[in-house]
Design a protein that fits this description.
Elements: E1 6-10, H1 15-31, E2 36-42, H2 47-53, E3 57-61, H3 74-95, E4 99-102, H4 108-117, E5 122-126, H5 133-138, E6 144-147, E7 161-163, H6 179-185, E8 194-198, H7 205-212, H8 215-220, E9 224-228, H9 234-241, E10 249-252, H10 258-264, E11 267-270, H11 274-283, E12 287-289, H12 299-308, E13 314-315, H13 321-334, H14 336-347, H15 354-367
């Protein structure tokens, strides 16, 4: 009886890691329906909920990140890392994967390290334009590195790099056909422009503060606002808007139907995570990007500048957002020519069928 081939996909921590990982798994299943896929994530992180919801099994490791400001807490971090390495060894031995894939996040390190030691073929998917320290270390011994940006030779061995782009959710294809459905879903006026504000799945404090500090300007505008606050800020956002009479502002904790949200948006305001940027490129939406200052090696600023240099997005620094973000948004919505230019330029940066390309590289490693 022929055995099904097995893949481990490790990593997570944020939607920017999780959704590409799910897209890769789905692409692998399309190419080889009988394939077994096991996810390994960090215990307590959002992948432990999102991956099973997508129909895949996941095992959690107690691995966490280093605490740069709390040195003593790093003793616990190192203990958790040791436990995670032991558990990762058991997973590798028991599951016996044909290929191990790392998508970034805390769990990638232990799994790929153990896979390399066992001489199991490995592949890294680096989403950002500036490689993280874990992937830079793993890249020395991994077999293949799939990247989303050109010029990544400064971080990785050139002979291992494949330019594939970042996988995005399948439903984001051909969103221009979904505009009418989106207008009905969100109960929007087709005659007024729409700004989509993305506070992330958990929430971006600066973006949310910028909105509720300028609710008067928002209420007075001839613009419709779809505001995703994120889980951590939703209650506070509802309190801030409780006394506001503004039918043009719609507050959501989390928007499930992102395809419909993108379909109706004339402008998107967002952080500059790699996954979001890849989605914006695919849907060709003008964007104002506010890079998070709380990420490793300031990689979101580097992501955003890659677009800005090509006239594909507007950058607002986190420290300036409270003062300028909403006014800049209002000005940009009125500038139809600039919106058109931004849309054209960001659309030209899209790399399509990324998940299928990465799945192809994984299957090629099996054949080797």
């Amino acid at each position: 009886m022929k055995q099904h081939r097995k893949i481990i996909i490790s990593g997570g921590g944020t939607g920017g890691h999780i959704y590409p990982a799910i897209a890769i798994a789905q692409a692998l299943k399309k190419k080889e329906p009988g394939m077994d896929i096991l996810f390994v994530g960090a215990s307590g992180k959002m992948e432990m909920e999102k991956i099973p919801a997508a129909g895949f099994d996941i095992i959690g490791l107690p691995v966490t990140g280093l605490k740069r400001k709390f040195v003593l807490k790093n003793i616990g971090v190192m203990i958790n890392l040791l436990i995670s390495m032991i558990k990762a060894r058991k997973i590798i031995r028991g599951y016996k994967p044909d290929v191990a894939v790392g998508v970034g996040g805390y769990a990638s390190g232990p799994i790929l390290t153990l896979a390399v030691r066992k001489k199991i073929p490995t592949l890294i998917q680096e989403q950002n334009s500036y490689a993280g320290i874990t992937n830079k270390i793993l890249a020395k011994k991994t077999d293949k590195i799939c990247v989303a940006y050109e010029g990544m030779e400064k971080f990785f061995p050139a002979d291992k790099i494949v330019l594939t782009g970042n996988p995005v959710r399948e439903e984001l294809e051909n969103i221009e056909k979904k505009r009418e459905d989106g207008l009905k879903y969100f109960n929007l006026d087709p005659g007024l422009p729409v700004v989509l504000i993305l506070g992330g799945s958990l929430g971006a404090q600066t973006i949310n503060e910028s909105v509720w500090k300028h609710l008067d300007l928002i209420a007075e505008s001839k613009i419709q606002w779809l505001w995703q606050t994120g889980k951590l800020y939703h209650t506070q956002a509802l309190e801030k808007t409780a006394a506001l009479v503004a039918e043009n502002l719609k507050v959501h904790e989390f928007i499930q139907c992102m395809d419909l949200a993108y379909a109706v948006a004339d402008l998107v305001v967002s952080r500059a995570g790699a996954g979001t940027i890849s989605e914006l490129c695919l849907v060709a939406k003008p964007a104002i990007l506010i890079p998070s200052p709380n990420v490793a090696e300031d990689h979101q600023t580097k992501n955003a500048k890659t677009l800005v240099e090509k006239g594909a997005a507007i950058l607002v620094k986190d420290q300036d957002a409270n003062q300028v973000l909403i006014r800049k948004t209002l000005d940009l919505v009125d500038n139809k020519n600039l919106l058109k230019d931004l849309s054209r330029n960001i659309g030209m940066m899209a790399i399509k069928n990324s998940a299928e390309k990465i799945a192809g590289e994984i299957i090629a490693l099996m054949k080797q």
